[in-house]
């Protein structure tokens, strides 16, 4: 057992190449890894997920379709936003594999908590549909792996990406053993995530946040609604969909959070984890498109995980 936060990544995640000018670019992960370089974390090479891992959340037809769509050169558009290059499928399998390995490490006592620095992101990928830059639903995959492989009974996801985690919501809609808490700017892509969307078993809490509402509003909403709900659920593991596009400098949204807001929220989640599940937290990178805001916010996020780990 190490007391260090695990950092999982793989060079394959840099080989998912989007067209010039696309916000979900290789430089995002390069900046993140550079910002994390000085930190004393346990560095873990993310494995490729097995097909069986992916099949916990996506049907075989979906996997076959992605393999058919995978280009041998150049780029292929799956929709207006979501692209594949020759390296994209391996990158996505590393992202999913990082989640599986991180869950195994944290539940197996090999690491107190973990962060997966991966791309493409995952939380927009629905059961049958790639979407919003995402191919595999990494956060939901972590939930199902923890429930069905490790035999847990209650796993929570907190998704603070500025966009609604519609894919995670779709994949966990019918899962009574999961609680999904997702905060998002509304109106914004993908258009879902209203408070009235609560899941088949009242297992989803959506927190819509208005444009320009800022970090203080976010903190009140989390303190009054999301964090008490998370604590009451008493999860045995908390998975974070860590998107940093709510930052004031982000070009895709207008929530105006600061780097300190991400640190605050991370610390609050870790405090609940310490009280209810021995601090077990697995976080995976979602969005965040201003390179400096992204790298500073990820570093603040991982530093809070490290503080909670000691
Ligand atoms: Zn986002």
TrEMBL record:
<dbReference type="InterPro" id="IPR023801">
    <property type="entry name" value="His_deacetylse_dom"/>
</dbReference>
<dbReference type="InterPro" id="IPR000286">
    <property type="entry name" value="HDACs"/>
</dbReference>
<comment type="similarity">
    <text>Belongs to the histone deacetylase family.</text>
</comment>
<dbReference type="Pfam" id="PF00850">
    <property type="entry name" value="Hist_deacetyl"/>
</dbReference>
<dbReference type="InterPro" id="IPR023696">
    <property type="entry name" value="Ureohydrolase_dom_sf"/>
</dbReference>
<dbReference type="GO" id="GO:0040029">
    <property type="term" value="P:epigenetic regulation of gene expression"/>
</dbReference>
<feature type="domain" description="Histone deacetylase">
    <location>
        <begin position="22"/>
        <end position="304"/>
    </location>
</feature>
<protein>
    <submittedName>
        <fullName>Acetoin utilization deacetylase AcuC</fullName>
    </submittedName>
</protein>
<dbReference type="GO" id="GO:0004407">
    <property type="term" value="F:histone deacetylase activity"/>
</dbReference>
<dbReference type="InterPro" id="IPR037138">
    <property type="entry name" value="His_deacetylse_dom_sf"/>
</dbReference>
């Amino acid at each position: 057992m190490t007391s260090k936060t695990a950092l999982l990544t793989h060079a394959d995640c840099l080989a998912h190449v989007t067209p010039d000018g696309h916000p979900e670019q290789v430089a995002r992960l390069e900046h993140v890894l550079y910002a994390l370089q000085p930190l004393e974390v346990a560095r873990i090479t993310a494995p490729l997920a097995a097909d069986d891992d992916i099949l916990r959340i996506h049907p075989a037809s979906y996997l076959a379709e992605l393999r058919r769509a995978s280009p041998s050169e150049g780029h292929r558009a799956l929709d207006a936003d979501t692209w594949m290059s020759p390296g994209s499928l391996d990158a996505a399998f590393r992202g999913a594999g990082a989640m599986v390995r991180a869950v195994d490490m944290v539940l197996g006592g090999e690491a107190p908590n973990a962060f997966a620095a991966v791309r493409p992101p995952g939380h927009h990928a629905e059961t049958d549909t790639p979407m919003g830059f995402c191919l595999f639903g990494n956060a939901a995959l972590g939930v199902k792996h923890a429930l069905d492989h490790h035999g847990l009974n209650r796993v929570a996801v907190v998704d603070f990406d500025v966009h609604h985690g519609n894919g995670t919501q779709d994949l966990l809609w019918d899962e009574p053993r999961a609680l999904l808490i997702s905060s998002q700017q509304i109106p914004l892509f993908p258009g879902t995530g209203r408070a009235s969307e609560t899941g088949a078993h009242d297992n989803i809490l959506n927190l819509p946040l208005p444009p320009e509402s800022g970090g203080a509003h976010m903190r009140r909403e989390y303190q009054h609604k999301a964090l008490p709900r998370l604590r009451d659920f008493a999860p045995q593991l908390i998975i974070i969909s860590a998107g940093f596009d709510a930052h004031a400098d982000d070009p895709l949204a207008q929530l105006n959070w600061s780097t300190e807001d991400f640190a605050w929220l991370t610390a609050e989640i870790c405090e609940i984890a310490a009280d209810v599940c021995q601090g077990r937290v697995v976080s995976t990178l979602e969005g965040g498109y201003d390179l400096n805001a992204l790298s500073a916010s990820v570093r603040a996020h991982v530093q809070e995980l490290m503080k909670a780990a000691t």
